[in-house]
Design goal:
2% strand; 2 strands; 11 helices
C-alpha cells in the first residue's frame, strides 16, 4: 500500500511536467498533422528540423539575441529544412520519404556546423527563457507551475488559431484539396508543387519552433534530440484522432483535430510516465513508443473490421429470414396440400 501511495505521489508530482512537455511536443505533432493528414505526405525531415530549431535558438540566445527573435529565426530555420525536402521532391522527383531522409541526414552536419559540438547547454539563471522545466518540479510554487503550463498552452492555442484562419482561406483550401486529390487539384488549376512546398515549409517551421521551446524547457539542445521525433509526432496524431472520433464524433471538425493532436501528445507522455512507474527500464522508451503507436494505429482498423463483420452478419441474418420456408412433406414423400 505504501509503495502504491509513493508511486501515485510521484505521478502527481510529475504530471505538470508531462503536460508541459506534451504541449511542447504538441506543437511538433501539429506540424506532423499538416503533412501526414492534410497533405498525405510522409515527411521524415522532422527528426532533423527539431534539433535544428533547438540549436539555432540556443546559439542565438547565448550570443545575446532576444529570446522572441531567436525563436522566430528557429521557426524560419525549420521552414528552410522543410523547403529543402519539398524541392527535392517537387523539382527533382525524389520520393517524399527519401527526400525527408536525405534532408534529415544533412541537418545532422548542419547542427554540428552551427554549434561546433554535439551539446549546447543554456541556463534559466543566465538568460530570460520563455519556459523551463525547473518550475514544474515538485516543491515549486503553484503559481510557477501554472505559469509554465500556461505558457506552453498559449503557444498551442495561438498556433491552432493561426492555422484555423490560414486553412480557411482560399490558399489553405487549395492545400487541403491537394492532399485529398492531387489529380483533380491540377485539373482545377492548382499548382500542387507550390502547395507542397508551402505545407512542408510550414510544417517543419512548427517543428523548429517546438525544438526551440524544448531546448529552453530542458536546458540544452542536443544533436540527437530529434531522434525518433517522428514516432512521437505520429503517436500524438493517431492518439488524438482516435480520442477525437470517440469523444466528438460528428462534431470532430478541423479545430478539434488540431486540438486533439496536442491532447494526443499529452496523453502519450502521461502513458509513458505510467509505463515508467510500473518499473520498466527507461532504456526501452523507444520500444514503448513504437508499441503505443502500433496499438493506436490498429484501433481504427479493428473498429472498421468489427463493423464490417457485424454488417455481414446482419446481412446474412436478413437473408436467412427472407428465404422461403419449405413446404411440409408427408410420410409418403409428397407435399401436403
Amino acid at each position: 500500500m505504501d509503495l502504491l501511495l509513493s508511486k501515485l505521489s510521484t505521478f502527481g508530482n510529475a504530471l505538470p511536467g508531462d503536460i508541459t512537455q506534451g504541449l511542447i511536443w504538441g506543437v511538433l505533432a501539429i506540424g506532423v498533422y499538416l503533412t501526414y493528414k492534410i497533405l498525405d505526405f510522409a515527411d521524415l525531415t522532422v527528426d532533423g528540423s527539431l534539433g535544428l530549431g533547438g540549436v539555432v535558438a540556443v546559439v542565438l540566445i547565448t550570443n545575446g539575441v532576444p529570446v522572441p527573435v531567436a525563436m522566430i529565426i528557429a521557426f524560419l530555420a525549420g521552414c528552410a529544412a522543410g523547403l529543402c525536402t519539398a524541392l527535392l521532391n517537387t523539382m527533382l522527383g525524389i520520393p517524399g520519404i527519401l527526400a525527408g531522409i536525405l534532408t534529415q541526414l544533412a541537418l545532422y552536419s548542419v547542427y554540428l556546423d552551427i554549434n561546433g559540438k554535439a551539446n549546447a547547454p543554456i541556463s534559466i539563471d543566465k538568460f530570460p527563457l520563455v519556459i523551463s522545466s525547473r518550475y514544474v518540479t515538485a516543491g515549486n510554487e503553484v503559481i510557477d507551475i501554472i505559469r509554465t503550463v500556461g505558457t506552453a498552452l498559449i503557444f498551442v492555442l495561438l498556433i491552432i488559431a493561426a492555422l484555423y484562419w490560414f486553412f480557411g482561406t482560399e490558399y489553405g483550401m487549395s492545400i487541403r484539396s491537394t492532399g485529398c486529390n492531387p489529380a483533380m487539384s491540377k485539373a482545377e488549376g492548382i499548382n500542387t508543387k507550390v502547395t507542397t512546398i508551402i505545407t512542408l515549409s510550414l510544417s517543419n517551421g512548427l517543428v523548429g519552433l517546438s525544438g526551440a521551446l524544448l531546448a529552453q524547457y530542458q536546458g540544452f539542445a542536443d544533436v540527437n534530440m530529434g531522434r525518433g521525433a517522428i514516432v512521437i509526432g505520429l503517436a500524438a496524431v493517431i492518439i488524438g484522432m482516435v480520442l477525437g472520433e470517440v469523444i466528438l464524433r460528428k462534431h470532430f471538425n478541423f479545430v478539434g483535430k488540431l486540438a486533439f493532436t496536442a491532447i494526443g501528445a499529452i496523453v502519450y507522455f502521461v502513458v509513458l510516465r505510467i509505463v515508467m512507474l510500473i518499473g520498466l527500464s527507461t532504456d526501452n522508451t523507444k520500444l514503448f513508443s513504437a508499441l503505443i503507436v502500433a496499438i493506436f494505429l490498429a484501433v481504427p482498423y479493428i473498429q472498421k473490421s468489427a463493423k464490417t463483420s457485424f454488417r455481414r452478419a446482419g446481412k446474412r441474418s436478413v437473408s436467412a429470414d427472407a428465404s422461403p420456408t419449405p413446404e411440409p412433406v408427408n410420410a409418403a414423400g409428397k407435399e401436403d396440400k
